[in-house]
Design a protein that fits this description.
Elements: H1 2-15, H2 18-34, H3 38-41, H4 43-52, H5 69-80, H6 87-96, H7 100-124, E1 127-128, E2 134-135, H8 138-145, H9 149-183, H10 187-202, H11 205-234, H12 239-251, H13 259-281, H14 289-292, H15 300-328, H16 331-334, H17 340-352, H18 354-387, H19 392-412, H20 416-434, H21 436-445, H22 447-463
Antiparallel strand pairs: 1-2
Helix pairs in contact: 1-20, 2-7, 2-13, 2-21, 4-15, 5-11, 5-15, 5-18, 6-13, 6-17, 7-12, 7-13, 7-15, 8-9, 9-10, 9-18, 9-19, 9-20, 9-21, 10-18, 10-19, 11-15, 11-17, 11-18, 15-17, 17-18, 18-19, 19-20
Length: 468
């Protein structure tokens, strides 16, 4: 295992390193130019689409298993709005300084276009499985449109292995830790309860998943944003200075380090900011399109609008809230030894006293729980693509077992629990990053198709054939 983790560390440094991050952001820049900056052109339109058509769906055939566009987006956001929005942001600033916040936002701006493109292609090339469920995503795009089945298989394998850590065990551990922090609940009981809750949801398929996430995701997002606003309101005078320090740290050395050290400081802000931003919103990784493919929608580009909103809300709104809370309360400089969830927790407690602990802990638990649900669908989709619908029960059993182990591991495995979770997280993190390679290749190969789809959508929208 030690040798495996050593190799994994080398691969992880590559897939989350500068060259790969340039590939991720560079693809977003290219698509933004090619498609005429849809994140700007459609800014008002995607808000109207998301909230104006929240409960509207197109007429479906009897027995159709599609879900509404809003439900598809909520399920996708269930997977993206997770511990990365709380712990990941704090870790990025701990390692890269305040400037990491700015690079998170910059990468998210171009990531909006990447996610828009992924979702659009996913709906365009989706198909139904043997049980009548809509299936789509990078593997279907690569096989059907790009004629690269070998890449499709690799992507599906990466997705399944990534779900074990990012989707199940580590998220379950975060849920248990959050509930234990706030209410002192025993991890074993958390494991039993969470396993039952997850089992009850996933047994019903995408309909059940989307129903739960449509209720939970808006609530938990508003709950966290309101709590953040209260902290920021109490520290309003410090916000201009926090933003100034973030801007300074993004482009210049905030500590006035000499020569090469100054360049290293800015590089850390860039790499950590972009890496955590991509990890949070998953733009370019090819995960969210797998659930957007189940949407009952009349045009693939219309569903792409929900991808724009998804990244905007996840990173530019929620991640920025976390960053500003940490900066405005002075926690980043006042508690240099803290990182991750502990850093965010201290910041909220500084602003709200003991209530801050409850807000962050409940948010952490909800974010992690919904991430489990979203990633279950990704793993099921990848499993069905590789092995057929008969593989679904196996994925369900693996998911529930890892959820319980993630919650109760510290009690059941003793001292080895920490290294077990750390190893599974590191391996899954690498697989998650590796998902981007075949996905980005597919986007670049089909960029001409994307441009054609967007042009047709614009023409139909301007002629009144498509109403928004």
């Amino acid at each position: 295992m030690e040798q495996v983790m050593k190799i994994n560390g080398i691969v992880n440094d590559i897939v989350w390193g500068p060259w790969m991050l340039c590939f991720l952001v560079g693809t977003g820049v290219y698509l933004t130019i090619l498609l005429g900056a849809p994140q700007l052109r459609y800014f008002g339109i995607f808000w109207k689409e998301v909230f104006g058509r929240k409960n509207k769906t197109n007429k479906a055939e009897p027995g159709d298993k599609s879900i509404s566009s809003f439900a598809a987006m909520a399920t996708a956001m269930a997977a993206t709005v997770g511990t990365g929005n709380i712990a990941g942001v704090a870790t990025a600033m701990h390692l890269g300084g305040p400037g990491a916040m700015i690079w998170m936002i910059i990468s998210a701006f171009f990531g909006m276009c990447t996610k828009f493109s992924e979702v659009t292609l996913s709906v365009e090339f989706r198909k139904k499985d043997a049980h009548g469920d809509w299936r789509g995503g990078t593997m279907y795009i690569l096989e059907t449109a790009a004629k690269q089945k070998w890449l499709a298989i690799i992507f599906a394998l990466f997705t399944i292995f990534a779900s074990f850590g990012i989707g199940y065990a580590v998220q379950a551990n975060s849920t248990a830790e959050g509930l234990n922090m706030a209410f002192g609940l025993d991890q074993v009981y958390c494991g039993i309860g969470l396993s039952i809750c997850v089992a009850l949801v996933i047994v019903g398929g995408i309909k059940s998943l989307s129903t739960v996430t449509t209720l939970l995701v808006p609530f938990m997002a508003v709950f966290y944003i309101v709590g953040s606003f209260i902290v920021l309101g109490q520290n309003a005078g410090a916000i201009p200075g926090a933003i100034a320090s973030a801007l300074k740290g993004a482009f210049t050395d905030p500590m006035a380090l000499p020569g090469a050290l100054a360049g290293w400081s800015v590089r850390m802000a860039i790499t950590k900011g972009i890496a955590r931003g991509v990890f949070s919103n998953e733009a370019g990784l090819g995960s969210a399109p797998m659930v957007h493919a189940a949407a009952n929608v009349d045009n693939p580009v219309r569903q792409g609008l929900y991808g724009l909103f998804e990244v905007f809300m996840d990173t530019i709104v929620i991640c920025s809230m976390t960053a500003l809370v940490v900066l405005s309360t002075g926690t980043l400089t006042g508690q240099p030894d803290l990182t991750g969830a502990q850093l965010s927790l201290y910041a909220f407690e500084t602003g709200l006293g003991s209530y801050g602990k409850y807000i962050l802990s409940v948010s952490l638990a909800l974010f992690a729980f919904t991430t489990i649900l979203g990633w279950y669908w990704y793993a099921e989709t990848a499993g069905v693509y590789l092995f057929g619908v008969g593989f679904k029960p196996i994925i369900k059993v693996i998911c529930i077992a890892l959820v319980f182990l993630g919650c109760a591991g510290s009690r059941l495995l003793g001292d080895s629990a920490g290294s077990f979770l750390s190893n599974i997280w590191d391996l899954a993190d690498t697989m998650n990053g590796l998902m981007a390679i075949p996905n980005l290749i597919g986007l670049l190969l089909l960029s001409g198709t994307l441009r054609k789809l967007v042009t047709e959508f614009d023409n139909k929208r301007l002629s009144g054939e498509i109403k928004l």
